[in-house]
Design goal:
305 residues, Rossmann fold, 12 helices, binds adenosine-5'-diphosphate, single chain, alpha/beta, binds magnesium ion, elongated
Length: 305
């Protein structure tokens, strides 16, 4: 299996709140520490990535925020404008086309065009070259939008290749979709938690990514893993008598213990279900301190091998 950092484009996805943004930042730190030139692209107007990296707020202007670590905030409108300009090569042409009532209507009619502009911008940076022909970045990491639209977004290049007439738009989408499907060049990093619902959604996501879209899942990151505290015998003892009389001293600690046992069991079951997926996995611990700090991100980065 090709190592993550040797692929040009990595798409970080998973259900909202599982730790995508945190892990995308940790991966970026890790790759930069390994000597790679990394671009982290963030599709979130209220980005927290800068806080996680300990750098000033990200803007829509791509910049090097740390040695070898570049970052940019992508918004749909700006990406759309850049894309339009890139295709049309001049602002006058751009205005003529994009401010024209007819073409505006046409672009609105292309499903997912705004999503494509964002994903396409990140993809474009992954094939961008310097003057000497060397790639501008070794790895581009794409932190998908918060709203669970990761999968919708990945569907767009495929849709464009199917519905849009031949032209620059379709040519780019075809090129990107071909690259996204190539495990030598791209990979999807799926992030999940070892809990019931996130596990079910991850199994569905994996199915859609591999069977429907034929995209290579490069890594499963199981985030927020807790250390089991109880042996099977202790688990059994604790779960034996669940009818507690809360007024008795000591019962509070006992119910805390029971809650923990239940959580450990759910985790065990979830890990077993996730083990069925034929993909390399990394488990990251649940941090007991505030995770939205550069220190926490560095700690997770060190564990991402
Ligand atoms: N391993 C972890 N341990 C503890 N808290 C974590 C961990 N990973 C992420 N978090 C916290 O969980 C919340 C959601 O993380 P975030 O990266 O924003 O998820 P997403 O991008 O998937 O919505 C944040 O408050 C983050 O600090
Ligand atoms: Mg996020």
């Amino acid at each position: 299996m090709r190592p993550l950092e040797d692929r040009r484009f990595l798409f970080v996805t998973g259900k909202g709140g599982v730790g995508k943004t945190t892990i995308a930042a940790a991966l970026a730190e890790r790759f930069a520490a390994q000597g790679k030139r990394v671009l982290l692209t963030v599709c979130d107007a209220k980005e927290r990535t800068s806080q996680l990296l300990g750098v000033p707020a990200l803007t829509q202007d791509l910049r090097e925020v740390k040695p070898r670590l570049y970052a940019v905030k992508i918004t749909a409108e700006r990406a759309m404008e850049e894309y339009g300009l890139m295709i049309l090569r001049s602002r006058t042409m751009y205005s003529a086309v994009f401010d024209n009532r007819f073409t505006r209507g046409f672009f609105k009619g292309v499903p997912g065009l705004y999503e494509w502009a964002m994903l396409g911008k990140a993809w474009y940076h992954s094939i961008e070259e310097q003057d000497d022909g060397a790639p501008r970045f070794d790895v581009v990491l794409f932190d998908a939008p918060a709203t669970g639209h990761g999968l919708d977004m990945l569907r767009v290049p495929k849709i464009i290749t199917e519905v849009v007439p031949p032209g620059i738009l379709r040519r780019d989408a075809e090129r990107a979709y071909t690259m996204f499907r190539d495990p030598e060049q791209s990979g999807v990093v799926v992030v999940t938690l070892p809990e019931d619902m996130p596990t079910s959604e991850t199994l569905e996501l994996y199915e859609a990514l591999t069977n429907e879209l034929r995209l290579p899942v490069a890594r499963l990151v199981i985030n927020g893993v807790i250390e089991p505290l109880f042996s099977p015998e202790e688990q059994h003892e604790l779960l034996k008598d669940r009818t507690l009389n809360r007024s008795l001293p000591g019962d509070e600690a006992l119910s805390g213990g029971i809650r923990r046992v239940i959580r450990e069991r759910v985790q065990e079951e979830s890990l077993a279900r996730l083990a069925a997926l034929p993909v390399a996995r990394t488990e990251l611990p649940l941090l007991l301190k505030e995770a939205q700090t550069p220190e926490a991100v560095q700690e997770l980065a060190a564990l991402l091998r």
